[in-house]
Amino acid sequence: xxxxxxxxxxxxxxxxxxxxxxxxxxxxxxxxxxxxxxxxxxxxxxxxxxxxxxxxxxxxxxxxxxxxxxxxxxxxxxxxxxxxxxxxxxxxxxxxxxxxxxxxxxxxxxxxxxxxxxxxxxxxxxxxxxxxxxxxxxxxxxxxxxxxxxxxxxxxxxxxxxxxxxxxxxxxxxxxx
Length: 177
Hints:
This protein is of the alpha+beta class. It has helices at residues 24-32, 42-47, 109-122, 136-139, and strands at 3-11, 16-17, 21-22, 70-74, 82-86, 97-105, 130-132, 147-151, 154-158, 160-164, 167-171. The longest helix is centred in the middle third of the chain and has 14 residues, at 109-122.
């Protein structure tokens, strides 16, 4: 079956917040691809990577820099379809952005494209919406992790957590939640 991939970077608060949970657009993507969403909001998961010991004061962004795994939510009906949320925060990112990666069957690619375009248009800040064969099934596979990620002038190890049916099925490092 042919697949179509999408990639977009937006601030976490444009797809999720603590009070209202995940946005309707993100919930639509999970539903469309038959992916069980996380029990917590994506914003709560994003904030779970905050390290108080690395912060000089409450709210110091340094407590979040260089942290964050890739959460990969695999479809219950098609093991090649997924929604990936890269929670890594690079030291120069002042907008708390996450990267959304989607691998969808060609049969629903137009619907996914429309949802991704709506997320991009409503986002406070957004990158280009990339779509096509982006190689994500290879780079986001279990074999692609752990991986080295550049964080300003240093390098850190990034892990991935794989979910299916609402359960953690694999992790390349310690589970965060």
